Amino acid sequence: MTFDPPPGRIMATGGTHTFAELSRAIDLSFGRWDLAQMHVFDLRDGQMIGPVDEYVTMDGLDDEELAIVGECLRPGQGFTYTFDLHSEWVHTCHVAKEPIDPRDELGEVPLRPVVLWGWGNLPDQHGRITAAG
Question: Is the pTM above the cut of 0.85?
Fold first, then answer.
């Protein structure tokens, strides 16, 4: 499904947050409810980060519960986040060139990644437009 213009979110995440925390924040910010779908972060250097357990067998996938955002991403760097590898909801992401002070933006330091701003329609993750489908 293609949206023109595409919906977007500006998010704040700390350097010590994990990619698991970031994926949950992205999914919730787009109104997703079926969070059991496989997802993956693709970084420009070829690193892939996602959920790793006994059921996942993707070669070269780093564990999102252990991968730290601030250790893997740099200011100005782009990356993608793909939710539901079957439906391929691809998110084009960019790290801001300059860090923000969360106290200035939010009044406090958040415990997890948060949305600062958003726009566009919330697409249903299964492409439905009515309750009947």
Answer: yes
